[in-house]
Design goal:
single chain, alpha/beta, Rossmann fold, 2 domains, 6-stranded antiparallel beta sheet, binds S-adenosylmethionine
């Protein structure tokens, strides 16, 4: 693959024509990030896509998640399940309570907690169920997001703030309890590769006459090995010209979580597929998803630092990474089955008698979380455990472990 962005660009902003202009400060940060990327490419040559993605998302002070601009909700770029409805966090609360009781746990750790909505709603529901953990940790590297989360918790559960703490890294001493990761794995940088009959090429980003552009180069050995492992697992060679992604850091990420969990469970919710579906022959243009002000597309090159860049999750790889690190894979199912198993209907029912408009609103939100055409099927839930623990009841309706 060669060539630049697929969009026609606005001459003033450098953003795709028709996209709303960002505020001048955000645009200035994006230009600084673009200059830094150009300098890096000038010095070291084209950037493998995972290095590009790492930078546009996490470059200190400049990356999408490191900068201060609005990302979540109506005024931002995308909406996640905790922002669709508190029913999501309320349902997860019951699952957390189950695991905490089973392992005599005292801690919930939430990775990448977004705007803090999930933490606030989850704590409120756990309080209602008289199942509060001693500690609720939020692992968040961005200072501006930490502030945002604090404000949200202060607004919803001010009396529970004493239990809440922020971490910049995974805890050094293994915890007993639950680790939650909603839409975190899709934000881990991925390498992009193309299968050719004679070998594997890697997609890198370089600087062309009109801006950043793609360049295919021979794949790094670690990408070749990863593709060989995928093909060996699938029992077939990917078709000639096939383009896709692989998350090289996923095994190490799962292993690092293993080191942090003495006993308990990790619940991962994200968009993704089991490996057989991920690398289906007709899914030959990869799985990248980028978001700018609720425009979803697949082109990560324009507007560095201003748009979210993500990739679907290979859930088989996540499960294997966990298993190889010594965790037990407990459950895998769709978000719809998981939430139904976790009692979302009963939670809705329990709000009967409250304000009618609020009930209608919650019922509509439940549809977005559950319907196959909305989030119900595209999002999947994976549970892995440390210690002697069984699958939470969210997996009781339809545990699809055999599909991984
Ligand atoms: C799409 S946002 C999801 C936010 C939130 N969980 C939600 O559902 O609204 C992805 C988040 O994952 C965080 N993230 C990425 N890599 C991470 C890592 N290695 N550890 C913890 N968080 C990470 C990002 O910083 C970002 O805040």
């Amino acid at each position: 693959m060669a060539g630049g962005t697929s969009f026609a660009l606005n001459a003033d902003t450098g953003l795709p024509a028709g996209w709303p202009a960002p505020d001048p400060d955000a645009l200035a940060l994006s230009r600084r990030l673009a200059a830094l990327l150009r300098a890096r490419i000038g010095e070291g040559g084209p950037l493998p896509f995972d290095a590009w993605m790492e930078s546009v998302l996490y470059e200190p002070g400049l990356g999408y998640y490191s900068g201060g601009q609005e990302k979540f909700g109506a005024a931002g770029d995308f909406v996640t399940a905790p922002l669709v409805s508190p029913l999501f966090a309320w349902s997860l609360a019951g699952q957390c309570a189950e695991v905490l009781a089973a392992v005599h746990g005292d801690t919930i750790l939430e990775l990448g907690p977004g705007d803090g909505s999930m933490a606030a709603d989850l704590l409120a529901e756990l309080e209602r169920q008289e199942a509060l953990p001693r500690r609720y940790w939020l692992l968040e590297r961005s200072a501006s997001l930490r502030q945002r989360q604090r404000e949200r918790l202060q607004a919803v559960v001010p009396h529970l703030l004493a239990r809440v703490d922020w971490l910049e890294h995974l805890p050094e001493r293994p915890m007993r309890g639950v680790i939650l990761a909603n839409e975190v794995l899709d934000a881990l940088p991925v390498a992009r590769f193309r299968r050719h009959r004679g070998g594997v090429a890697e997609l890198t980003v370089t600087v062309g006459e009109d801006g950043f552009e793609w360049q295919e180069r021979p794949a790094r050995p670690q990408v070749e090995r990863a593709v060989a492992a995928i093909e060996s697992d699938l029992g077939r060679t990917l078709p000639d010209g096939y383009l896709s992604e692989v998350c090289l850091q996923l095994p190490a990420f799962m292993a690092s979580l293993r080191d942090s969990l003495a006993t308990g469970a990790l619940l991962v919710v994200d968009y993704g597929y089991p490996r057989r579906e991920y690398y289906r022959a007709d899914r030959d243009e990869g799985t990248l998803v980028c978001h700018y002000r609720h425009r979803a597309h697949w082109d990560p090159l324009p507007a560095p630092g201003l748009q979210d860049v993500s990739a679907f999750v290979d859930f088989t790889a996540a499960a294997l990474g966990a298993q190889n690190a010594g965790l037990e894979v407990l459950g895998y199912t769709s978000q719809a089955h998981f939430l139904m198993g976790a009692g979302i209907t009963e939670l809705l029912e329990a709000r009967r008698g409250e304000d009618v408009m609020e009930q209608v609103r919650l019922a509509q939100q439940a549809k977005t979380l559950l319907l196959p055409g909305a989030m119900g099927e595209r999002f999947r839930v994976l549970a892995v455990g440390a210690g002697n623990i069984s699958a939470p009841t969210g997996f009781s309706l339809y545990n699809q472990l055999a599909n991984l």
